[in-house]
Design goal:
The chain is α+β, with helices and mostly antiparallel strands and about 140 residues long. The chain has one domain: Cytidine Deaminase, domain 2 (3-Layer(aba) Sandwich). The relative contact order is 0.17. It binds zinc ion (ZN). Zinc ion (ZN) binds next to helix 3.
Length: about 140
């Protein structure tokens, strides 16, 4: 696994995710925010949406980028304002890891290491032995 150092740009991305969540954090529906930076520097954000199946914030941020015509993803981060996340950053769930792998297997994800230090790893490293759709094999 290749671990990358967090840059100032990455810390700004964490802050962007936090800014997205604060106005809508009502303790139930919107508890996670995400920010996605594309390779051209554009940033797209999202919050989780509750419902029967709901949607993680990462899906909403990726959907916003795709809607804007940008699929060249660089780095994503998700944050949670709850005390369970001391610096706010939370790891993506398995469903998000698979989705991000299918869109952009080499995109970077900001997560906490085992000591609570922010690091950056590829989504490929977060999802070993990923399912690969036959139509997507050239990306894997
Ligand atoms: Zn998720």
């Amino acid at each position: 696994m290749r671990i990358e150092e967090i840059t100032k740009e990455d810390l700004l991305l964490v802050e962007k995710a936090m800014q997205t969540l604060r106005p809508v954090a009502d303790g139930w529906y919107h508890t996670v925010g995400a920010a996605l930076r594309c390779k051209n520097g554009d940033v797209f954000t999202g919050v989780n949406c509750d419902g029967i199946h709901g949607s993680c914030a990462e899906f909403i941020a990726v959907g916003a980028a795709v809607t804007a015509g940008n699929r060249d993803f660089d780095t994503i981060v998700a944050v949670d304002l709850s005390p369970s996340a001391p610096n706010g950053v939370v790891s993506p769930c398995g469903n998000c890891r698979q989705m991000m792998f299918e869109y952009c297997p080499d995109m970077r994800v900001i997560v906490n290491d085992e000591n609570g230090k922010l690091i950056k790893v590829s989504v490929r490293d977060l999802l070993p032995f990923a399912y690969v759709d036959p139509a997507q094999r050239e990306n894997a």
